[in-house]
Records
---
Amino acid sequence: MSGLPTAVPHRLAGRRVEVPGLLDVGGQGRDTAEAVRFLRECAGLGLRVSWRAAGQPSYDARALRHLPPPDELPGDHEELAAWRSGYAHGALYHRRGPGFVTVMDRREPGTAARLTLDHPDLLAAFDLLLDPTPLDALDPTGREAAGLLAAERLALVTGGWAVALPPRIRRWPVPCTAI
Amino acid sequence: MRVHLVTMPWHPLDLPSLQLGLLNRIVRQARPADRVTEFHGSLRWAEFLLERSGGRLRPGDCVAVGSDGIFHGLGDWVFSGVLYDDPGWGLARLRDYAADRDVLIDTAVAMRPYAAEFVAACATEVLAAEPDVVGFTTTFMQNVPSLALARELKCRKPELTVVLGGGNCEGPMGHALHRNHPFVDHVVRGEAEYAFPALLRHLDEGTVPVDVPGLCWWDGHISRANTETRRTVAPADIPSPDYDQWQAALDASPVQEYVHPKLVVEGARGCWWGEKHHCTFCGLNGSAMAFRAKPGERLWEEIGRLVRRHRLLDVVTVDNIIDMAYFRDFLPRVAGSGWDLRLHYEVKSNLTPGQLRLLGESGTVHIQPGIESLGSRVLDLMDKGVTGARNVRTLRECENHALTCSWNLLYGFPGETADDYTPVIDQLPALVHLQPPSGAHRIQLERFSPHFTDPALGFGKRRPAELYQHVYDLPADELTDLVYLFDSEDAGITGPVEQWLKDAVAAWRAGHADSRLLFEEAGEELLVVDRRCGRPPATHRFTGWQAEALRRLEDGRTVPALHRLLAAGGHDVPADALDAWIRHALSLGLLFRDGLTYVSLPTWGEPVRLPEGAGAAG
């Protein structure tokens, strides 16, 4: 048991994860949401991931840049180079406290934004979106909250599916103060 | 009565003042009718610099001067010009001092022109609260900023009562602070829980505070210092801090965008190790070494309350040493909470792997284990109660449990010789995959330490540290009573060995980021994957008794003890074969040798390593 989502077949050896199949990042539906969840959970555990991407993102691909970059990305080489050079462990993560979630967002170079999610509706939506969720399954409050989270780039909403973007930090780096 | 509590620069910008948080509660509990307000001057200073310098002097610069500059008195110096009414006061001496020691002073020098106007603005703001009493807390470099403001306050409102307290006021330091600064009405020496409310009662009633233990007060023009008490404050009387006013100040401050606030809590005072064996160089506990801890359940309740109230998950503890009972009644509660806390704790370095694992599981991922040295004889000289082998083990376990380990390598102990260091320095390249010290530092002579109180230990000649020459305009005998750090003749290693040690530590720090030494299990084989800086990449394979020996040495053992263990495990190894294998493993840098004890160096896991300072805010 790796503790990682089973929707994406993978092999775990030590602190390395290998994904034999392609992960669809095209954003057409559930597959992309599942891929994001898988990579997000790997990042939260501080695992090194070897994976290959398929599909052309139908959304702003910068939304994934806090996740471990793929070995291969169809199309533009510059896109992959930018992902690799801009990737930093802990650039975006969340932590859970009693009745709230804190988010650290360092995705914009030179910034470090702290957000606290403590509004019950927002928190409930965030918790729900930790699992890939079809928009159809959300009530109006949930859809509004998903929209707010997407506007802050804390959720990816595409192809009728939504998924939360910040990993929960489960393994601190050394030094732990670096993130 | 209106009581205004003040913390001046250089209180860390990311932390509330525990002292103010405690005093606020103490006064309100003892005197419910009093109004207690707070002034967070350190935060104000960062705001002031940011605004007045047009963004040139940023909160990160305050850290550089206020924290990193402690051993050069840079933060105090910034405000000395205000205290002495001379913007250029001490500048030439500071420049000479800095040139001799290669100290960067540009930021401090750039800050000084803002200090006078800042102190004036502080005085206006403090007086706007219409206080009857202004209480300053002063630790490290808060003396001169506090004195500068105290002087300005008394100039503007002579009837105001100014009180100083805090770590800088312990013992003779407090009396010297008092008698040399007539604008300071009272100095509370030692713990304030009982003394401060007692002083307020006297002020209210207009009586002379002759019965407040440790207090300094003016008898006409004579500075009186009441005898200090040996009675320490019971844990039950140490309140839980109130950080509401700090939170309000931070919420209203542009500085909040630059800092990651953390909570500060206190589980214990004193040091249980120091009660039995006072580490010879340490003066941190002042005159109150007696160890007193809140029950773990109560500490956890306090943290829970603060976490809920402030919605912060980073917690710094100020305890000089963790209460070992907390491994039973505190850390399991933290680990079981399901909250993603990140705690900082000072611990003793002889923790078991199980205790280190619990620290990791509880989110106590930043520890300061007081390692100080990797040489057993030097550790003996400092009465540290651990061996070099044990310290190496702790460093290795920190890798296994992804614990961030802050430590210094100290040298300069009376009686140490080059022979105590050369075997350790020779082996430092083998430790490059473990977390390096912040540097190799010669010990300082600190007031209250055994080195200070007993000149026979080797530091017979002492004088106030040179840095105070650019901080205070006071005669030598007064400085001798007022300051915490002293200069003395160098003891222990000097010259080439000292330089060799510093170079070896610098190489460790430079090579650490890309170095790994990892165990891997492959069927019957135990692999050691060596990717350490300074060695060719290699994978060593061990089977049978050799694999067993390497595992057994994780705990650190002598060769005869290892031999017995292997025999008990069914491995009949000839003694000379074991000796030869030990020599081989040592030559590969897979073992650390401390006298007769050998410790395995490979780790079972590797943390995610990031460059130091990657997360520092501007």
Note: Chain B touches chain A at residues 260, 304, 307-308, 311-313, 338-342, 363, 365-366, 398-399, 402-404, 435, 520, 605-615, 617-618 (CB under 8 Å).
---
Amino acid sequence: MELLATLRKRELLEKVLPFVDGIIVGKFFTSSYHCTLKEIVEINVICKASQKKIYLVLDDFISEDDIDALYRYLEFIKKLEPDGIYFHDFGIVAAAKRYGLSDKLIYDGKTVACNSLDTAFLLSKGIDSVVLSRELTLEEIFRIAKNNPRQIDLQIFGHQRLSYSKRRFLTNYFKEINKEYGYLGNEDLYLVEEQRDYKLPIIENEEGTFIYSDYVFEMINELPELMPYLKRGIVDSLFIEDQTIIDVCRDLRRLSSENKRFIRDNLYHNHPDVYASGFLYQRTNISKDE
Amino acid sequence: MSKIELLAPAKDLQKAKIAIMYGADAVYVGGKSFSLRSRASNFTIDDLRELCSFKKDYGARLYVTVNIVFHDDDYEGIREYLKILDDMGVDGIIISSLALLRVAKQVAPGLECHISTQLSSLNSLAVETLKEYGADRVVLAREASMDQIRRIAQRTSVPLEVFIHGGMCSNYSGRCVLSNRMTLRDANRGGCAHSCRWKYHLFAGDEIISNPNCLLSMSSKDLRASAYVEDMIRCGIASLKIEGRMKSEYYIGQVVKTYRQMIDEIYFKGHLTEDRLAYYDEELSKAENRPSDDGFLSGDCDNTKHLYGVNGAGVTHDYVAYVHRYDEARSLCMIEVKNIFKRGDRIEVFGPQVDNEQFVIDQMFDQSWNAVDLANKPTQLLFLRIPFKVHQGDMFRRVSL
């Protein structure tokens, strides 16, 4: 399994690079650091010089207005010779074909890649790999991964994205209550529902608004047995301190069945936070009548 | 060019029949399995068979939603189910699983495969990719503007379906699992708890920055695209879709009839005047229980398109009775009580062949011919005289004075 980290900010690159196999960045990357093209070129040079992989992200939904911009961006990407491109808009499949990038595509639907058949279907269409949805149980992940061995990517650490809207919830809300606040790209804003105490990170940028899990997802105990079936494991750095990400990447790189308890204890001790196993042991198929 | 399709939702057999009788060209319904909206009554195989027979008499089409985001266990029985749908004469399925494209083409080749809005298709390239994968129709995401819809339609040959009325997810459809986190109900497998409509405090670090009198909500107003129907016809959209598989027969009847008349008038006259549009908007508002607007069709959604003070849907009590029979010789009508009303109330009757005709209730009788002053027992059958002809399937609504 390749170990990848998303780049929350440019300064994290050199610190984390020694401990990962590759980096995920993107101009359009809505769930992480929003790089300029110049920065992407620079990061690409550094990754290649360090013999590390670089993956780009195009995880926006592309409107019809943005097709020309998409073509220009893919033309730019092609020159970088990236190792992969994460996407979830199927328009990118057609656009990538035009630039000979089809074999670089990795589908990351966030919430809609939940089964073996759909995964196999996408792989049969030339998609390189599929990132499984975050709301799957461990049993389901194992099953899909065993059915499609080493063609599966998985987020293995970080806040899990719960929703993506084109609506600008923060802009609209502040307008509604006549308040000015520096919220664009602000990683320090949280929603807490009236009746529940979950503290959900919310972030808005030009592409819309994103809400993340209140907890930091980790699967240190489960990962050693799963790793042989995965193509890539992703550490998402969004909302998380640099040192935590660096330590997590370093420790995951040497993770084994023998040291997993030690590594997990270290994480909980050295970087206290709200950690959880997400949906790994929590099925979410309760119907409305239950 | 073939006439644009008016596509209506239905929660059960009765509502599907009403949708067709009131003018829908096609209805979409969910089966007992594989369908979102788990709380909708949903159709048994026998119901679907009966509906297939019913829709043939009207020349209507029937699409079945098979649109959950499948987990591995959910596929059990799907091949047999699709084959049964195909054999009984269902016209198409609405799906979000791309693997089902392949499965359906193998076991149920007579079924059209429509790609659900769950895949949030927003551009012509996505539509073309889905066509290449085997899609026969693509439902566009509700985040597209009218201008974008027009250009997508120009650039693809795939039949497109567009939402014109009803509730909207505030997030991209399928890209939200808030409900999973908040309630363990899977938003993408029919259990959505509408957590986006709840109220939230907003924190910056540990400091509350939201207004306690107006908490943050992601709730969006409902969609009403009446002003865009003419544009959609002109740009070659294949189907106009009404949302609301959980809605009442009154809602279905009123909304379907209004859009039916609007579409027919546009085709007949070539254009809808402002006055006529205002009339149709007024008709649509009779069925509404949440505020509505044109969503993303006119561009971005600002704060005026959100609901900050409303948690859920209100319920209209204007719909008071459903007509079961009418004896023209005696001007006697048998109705089923839906909501409370009384002698002396002014009633407006509407139906596939009746346009808002009014009368005042003079006398009512129960089935033993006892006089009834107050109709307050839902499902009770009553008789009353009515000064004009009505039909089975017409509905009564109370007129506010």
Note: Chain B touches chain A through 83 residues (CB under 8 Å).
---
Amino acid sequence: MKRTKLLAAIAGIGIVVVAAIFVAADHIDAPAVAGSESDITDFYAFQGQNTDNLVFVTNVQGLLAPGSTDQAEFDENVLLEINIDRDNDLVEDLVIQMIRRNDSMYFFGPVEVGSNNTGLTSMIDTDAVRNSVKISDVGNVETSENNGMMFFAGPREDPFYFDFEQYNEVIAGNATGFEDPGTDTFAGTNVLSVVVEVPKSMLGSGATGANPLMPDTPIYNTWVESKRKQ
Amino acid sequence: MKFSKYITISIALVASLAFVQCSDDDDNVIIADATCNDGIQNGDETGVDCGGTACGPCATAFEGTYAQEDQMGRPGINTVFGTDGMKDEFNVTTPSNMGTQFQPDFEDKLLALNPGYTTNALGLDATTFTTVLASDVLWVAETGTTSYFNGTQVLTGRTLQDDVIDISLLLIFGGPDGSENPMLTSDFVDSNDANFSASFPYVVAAN
């Protein structure tokens, strides 16, 4: 009796959570952007191979099948904007703006944001340092480097991993939790990826106390936005 | 005589072209033709030293106002804690407004997902945990190792290798010591199907 009740409760939890996580991380996270060129699938920020640098990876347009990946394009009307807040007021102090023109991805910044250019609408700061990289295709990797910054844009294997098949099983009521071992549903799929590596010296100092779990570590608050030309 | 004069002029021209190309170190626009740096609009340029087939786009090519459609800091936040009807709104809310606007909903959602939630492995009660998560920014350490969680570093970045799904499941379902709901605290996919590169661009070849 009790055991059955408990199992039912856990099964109920399982259905809710897996349904909620769905094809996370941010793949098709909301109705308005799902499946569009502005749908951000993932955002990574980490210390580079050169530990004086930080790396930002922005992925869009997830679940590309191998056969059709070379047909996927960055949208010239979609600006990708990396936001960096270094004083922990949750307002961006610096941005890196990234947008395609013709066969290349253009990068502006990192540049300080004027107080009238923060938030939900942006203009591209064409006075900022401009860099570019030719967009790669599946078989041909193009990178560029300038002033210690490095740039890449093009299709890549989706680095995200999650058992989505088991989700279907739980949703269908055929399972009460995940299976051990699980199966990576994202194996074999691709995304469009933009990678920029930046010397930390270009970003200034982060804020201690921003992360209460690591209060002595200076932290940047970072996030990425996609914005469409009006 | 004439011939040697012609050669002299040619050498001067070549030299000046080479000089112009080498002097372009102030940005990374690929100069396919020296006319892209001569200070006048010529060839098929659409502005001075920009546009056309040889030069980089003019500043005017980047004009306009761009309005937000999607936003992401930490992985899975909107997907897990968003509810129908608020997910689109979350994507067009600035991080500075997210806490006030969405923390109560996030807390309700957390307790709906796991009615038995008390605290998690980080010692955060439901209100504190969802307060952290509602402002959807990714914390990145200015110095030292970056990791979503590696046993020592807690939310100091997100590497390609980090198993963010298991970390999130554990914090939502695992209880104070991570032992609760064992079949919901991991998807048992422990790594990506391809190995990442140790060097730029880190993400690896498409399938």
Note: Helices of chain B lie at 2-23, 77-81, 87-91, 95-113, 126-134, 164-173.
